[in-house]
Write a structure and sequence with these properties.
The complex is a heterodimer. Chain A is α/β, with parallel strands linked by helices. In chain A, strands 6-7-8-3-9-10 form a 6-stranded mixed sheet. Chain A has a 4-stranded antiparallel sheet with strand order 2-1-4-5, with helices on one face. In chain A, a hairpin with a 6-residue loop joins strand 1 and strand 2. Classes of the chains: A alpha/beta, B mainly alpha. Chain B: InterPro entries: Tscrpt_reg_PadR_C (IPR018309), Tscrpt_reg_PadR_N (IPR005149), WH-like_DNA-bd_sf (IPR036388), WH_DNA-bd_sf (IPR036390).
Chain lengths: 247, 192
């Protein structure tokens, strides 16, 4: 345990190098970050700025070349492969742009799978998956294969799957990248409900709409943070200002 | 606002409060700040300009101010012209562009800082619009027809919010381009 054990995610001096020697580029360059429990952090930046690499380091999908990563007071960058895999299954929920669902499994089976891998009983997994599919509005599609679902529905299945083990943090990489406006709103509504329930999120996105819903918005360039915006609740002056009424 | 009020009167003569209610229905959460007084002021101006007439309604002593407004022939013509008009509400890009140039030239402020501040403001607005859009019905169907409404009401405020957000996102992308260009200009100056 260290002094930041209350935070869901902490990094100190985090470095990830792509390539060797002088030709090497620091994809993540000495990043210090602290995401308190229940906060939604969005990271924006151009392609290649290092934001996806940062997300992979936070979730233990890649190992850093320097610095530390802590999840809920536990240092993860020094874990063995086996311990890291177990930590990922139990403590981190991933949501990707391309959904990454198993095409030969039904929606319900896709959601159940991580619970089974984490050692839950078939019955527990089924019950939990049923509740989550209900929460994302897909009870009627539970037995459909991913190929029978729309992009928005697939992403909602992926969100349910990410939540099945009650993760400490949900890490989302362009979660609305392939979705139309209505499906984007569906995903943002679900994220909003989860945030109200105290879920912690780190979201990497190009989509300004997604970023604008976060509590904190970091802009990244060349592996470093260049802007850090904390968003307050909506201002009292009202929405008329958006269209020039009473601005 | 004047043109919109006139066009609403083209359907049938109406009371100010009816016009207010119809505007509020079309604008949804974006029209919350609009009060009836603004409509009465607009109607008075239109009447002075000869585009609208008003008649006191009989038999309602408890509401002496209740007037029915109707279009004059000149008002009809103006509505026709407004519908035929094609415009593009111009965003204030040139002003911001010149602000950055002046700030850099006179060393008054760091353009990259000005861009960052502008970006934060737009993101805050986008957040407000996004929150309002999420509170609207998922499928933007027809707005609820009120008792005074007989024809189709059309899509609700969700559609307007989508337009507001698309413009804000376009502006944010332009600010990204500004940031890249002015950061590069900075590097060139620093690098000699």
């Amino acid at each position: 345990m260290n002094g930041s054990s209350a935070a869901a995610v902490v990094t100190r001096g985090l470095v990830k190098q792509h390539g060797q020697g002088h030709g090497g580029v620091r994809a993540v360059d000495e990043i210090d970050l602290e995401v308190p429990q229940g906060q939604t952090l969005a990271v924006m930046g151009p392609s290649g700025c290092g934001k996806s690499t940062l997300l992979h380091l936070l979730g233990g999908l890649e190992r850093p070349d320097g610095g530390e990563v802590w999840l809920a007071g536990r240092r993860i960058d020094t874990l063995s492969e086996r311990a890291l895999a177990r930590m990922r299954r139990r403590s981190v929920g991933f949501v990707f742009q391309g959904f990454h669902l198993m095409e030969e499994l039904t929606a319900a089976e896709n959601v159940e799978l991580p619970a089974l891998l984490a050692g839950r009983s078939r019955r527990q997994a089924r019950r939990r998956a049923g509740r989550l599919l209900d929460q994302v509005g897909l009870t009627a599609r539970a037995r459909h294969l991913p190929s029978q679902l729309s992009g928005g529905q697939r992403q909602r299945v992926a969100v349910a799957r990410a939540l099945v083990n009650d993760p400490l943090v949900v890490l989302a990489d362009e979660p609305t990248g392939n979705l139309d406006t209505a499906a984007t709103h569906d995903v943002l509504r679900i994220f909003g409900e989860l945030r109200s329930a105290g879920q912690t999120f780190v979201i990497v996105t190009h989509d300004e709409r997604v970023a604008a819903t976060a509590d904190r918005l970091i802009s990244m360039r060349d592996g470093m943070f260049v802007d850090d915006l904390r968003m307050a609740a909506a201002r009292p002056r009202g929405l008329g200002g958006l269209i020039g009424l009473g601005d | 606002m004047q043109d919109a009020v006139l066009a609403m009167l083209a359907k049938e003569p109406s009371h100010g409060y009816e016009l207010h209610a119809r505007l509020r229905r079309s604008l949804g959460p974006l029209g919350e700040s609009m009060n009836r007084g603004q409509i009465y002021v607009t109607l008075a101006r239109l009447e002075r300009a000869g585009l609208v007439t008003s008649e006191r309604e009989d038999g309602l002593p408890e509401r002496p101010e209740r007037k029915v407004h109707a279009l004059t022939p000149a008002g009809q013509q103006r509505v026709t012209a407004w519908l035929a008009e094609v415009g593009w509400p111009k965003p204030d890009l040139a002003e911001f562009h010149l602000k950055l140039a002046a700030a850099a030239a006179g060393r008054l402020a760091d353009p990259v800082e000005l861009i960052a501040a502008q970006r934060r403001e737009l993101l805050r607005r986008l957040r407000e619009a996004q929150q309002a859009a999420l509170a609207e019905p998922a499928e933007p169907g027809p707005a609820e027809p009120g008792p005074a409404e007989s024809g189709p009401a059309g899509p609700g405020a969700g559609l307007l919010l989508e337009g507001v957000m698309l413009r804000l996102r376009a502006d944010l992308r332009w600010l990204d381009a500004c940031e890249r260009a002015w950061s590069r200009a900075d590097d060139e100056i620093e690098g000699g």
